[in-house]
Amino acid sequence: MPKTNPEARERIVAGAADMISRRGLSATSIREMAKHAKAPLGSTYHYFPEGKQQLATEAVRYTGEWVARSLRKELEKGPAAGLRAFLALWRKIVVDTDFRAGCPVLAVAIEEPPTDEIPPALAAAAEVFDRWESLLADSLRAHGAEPDQAAQLATLIVSSVEGTVAMCRAKRSAEPLDRVAAQLQGLIDRAIGA
Fold first, then answer.
1. For the residues of the chain, what is the DSSP string, one character each?
2. Which residue of 33, 119, 154, 190 is 20 to 30 Å from 43, comparing CA positions?
3. Within 13 A of 81's CA, how many CA atoms are on the CB side?
4. How much of the chain exceeds pLDDT 90, in percent?
5. In whole angstroms, what is the distance from residue 124 CA to residue 131 CA?
């Protein structure tokens, strides 16, 4: 049995997140995720014995935490800085991949579950969206926004940016991000009285 290697496991998870961000979950096999991560299929099953759903769940959580770290850091400077960082992160991904990749969290969230049960990856996507919204709402409240308005605006920011990433991929242009950025910035300014 292979030894546990945190770097190898993380490489597989990051590779899976990248594959899902490009092709979606249904169109990506665990074999392709392993190959993309340059990992043996046997090692992939060693780290993820429950298979594709387990790996996809970890990929969603990995992406969620990666984005949350960036948000937490920038939100220390205020909600406008957090918004700019959130937009810049997704702009870099869509532009650097020539509009071939988006958000793996969104990719998992929009796919039809194979059964009536909520798959773990879909539940993880909901948790990630909640975390991003909470970070934004907390910052908005800390900078003067009313609690209900902060929660609503945080949901609007996350959903707008995620939807805009999909539009950028379809249009092969970052222009939708620019348009959304201007509108969301104005809403933040009004919410915090800037």
1. -PPP-HHHHHHHHHHHHHHHHHH-STT--HHHHHHHTT--HHHHHHH-TT-HHHHHHHHHHHHHHHHHHHHHHHHTT-HHHHHHHHHHHHHHHHHHTTT----HHHHHHTSPPSSSS--HHHHHHHHHHHHHHHHHHHHHHHTT--HHHHHHHHHHHHHHHHHHHHHHHHHT-SHHHHHHHHHHHHHHHHHHT-
2. 119
3. 11
4. 77
5. 10
Residue 42 C-alpha from the chain's centroid: 27
38: left (phi over 0), alpha (psi -120 to 50) or beta: left
Q: Alpha-carbon Rg of the chain, whole angstroms?
A: 18
pLDDT above 70: residue 1: no
Tally of CB atoms within 10 A around 14: 17
